Amino acid sequence: MKHLIFGLLLATSFAVGHHSFTAAYDTTQAVTVKGVITNVRLQNPHSWFFLDVKDASGKVDQWAFEAGTPSGMLRNGYKKDVIKKGVEVTIKGFRARDASQKMGMLQQLITPDGKTYGMFGPQESK
Question: Most Cβ neighbours (<10 Å): which of 27, 74, 89, 120?
């Protein structure tokens, strides 16, 4: 019985410590952003891609896109050094629920040569 209680407590602590993407991102609000990579963080629990994006007036905003786990991104075809700082990419995803934040959940990352990486494996760009 002690083992069962310990297991339930351990499982509960992991569930509380990890969030659902749909809790933070509005999957009905698709967004496409083109910008220059400033940083890539492949670290647990989720990878992050940061980019500078110019709007129509030339103002630069920093956007952040949350992606899958580092091991999941690697399994899905993403290589650690495939995206370097200064490379212009297009990211398709979903906006943060708080629309004032320049943040989203990455669905596809498209490199200048047309290679597409996503949360669910290498993909054909469209």
Answer: 89
